[in-house]
């Protein structure tokens, strides 16, 4: 059994034989379902260096001993700026960390600390306990998404941004579902602030029978 818990914005905790935390922006997140000190993790995956994604990664890693997996440049940036953490820098492609299969895939987005560009944005395909999960990170839709299921097998659940302004909006996310062909979809990265306001029910309606759309409120989880 694998649980996918929505922590708000783009933060998720995937729990199975390992606990995998993705984009743990909790401090300062008005939609956060947990505080950094309440979250446990074995691995922390970061999609890009913006503050609303890198978030509390270093603080949680120091407390829990979790390894941070990120784009090579972001991993180096964290090691240079933070103490007491372990990072695994990678680039687009597959790897295995502590028995978890991880593929870092492209995302169309910027990546910076607010002043300087740091690495490239990414998404992740994660295989844990027989379940395949795709976290898109912040991205616009792109045709190469159709390669993901072709290369790595059927996607059980896709975590897709729908808020627009910085990422795909509803229309583009529906197209992403067509390309990815996942069994289930969880919308994310919407309604945290006014610029990314979106209606998940509209997204669900437009996806139709292409996939099962699961709308999670922060703190709710999907059991696979």
SSE topology sketch:
Elements: E1 3-8, E2 11-15, E3 19-22, E4 43-45, H1 51-54, H2 57-64, E5 67-71, H3 72-81, E6 86-90, E7 93-97, E8 100-106, E9 122-128, E10 131-135, H4 146-152, E11 157-161, H5 170-180, E12 184-188, H6 200-207, E13 212-213, E14 221-223
Parallel strand pairs: 3-4, 4-5, 5-6, 10-11, 11-12, 12-13
Antiparallel strand pairs: 1-2, 1-14, 2-3, 7-8, 8-9, 9-10
Helix pairs in contact: 4-5, 5-6
What does this structure look like?
It is a single chain. The chain has a seven-stranded mixed beta sheet, covered by helices on one side. It has six helices and 14 strands. It has one domain: Metallo-beta-lactamase, Chain A, CATH 3.60.15.10. The protein has 224 residues and is an alpha/beta fold. The chain starts with a strand and ends with a strand. It has helices spanning 51-54, 57-64, 72-81, 146-152, 170-180, 200-207, and strands spanning 3-8, 11-15, 19-22, 43-45, 67-71, 86-90, 93-97, 100-106, 122-128, 131-135, 157-161, 184-188, 212-213, 221-223. The protein is 21% helix and 30% strand.
Brief account:
The chain has 224 residues and is α/β, with parallel strands linked by helices. 21% of the residues lie in helices and 30% in strands. It is globular, with a radius of gyration of 16 Å.
Helix percent band: 10-25%
Shape: globular
State the low-pLDDT regions, or none.
none
Total domain count: 1
Query: What letter string, H or E per element, gives the SSE order?
Result: EEEEHHEHEEEEEHEHEHEE
Q: Notable features of this structure?
A:
224 residues; seven-stranded mixed β-sheet; single chain; Metallo-beta-lactamase, Chain A; Metallo-B-lactamas; hydrolase; alpha/beta; 21% helix
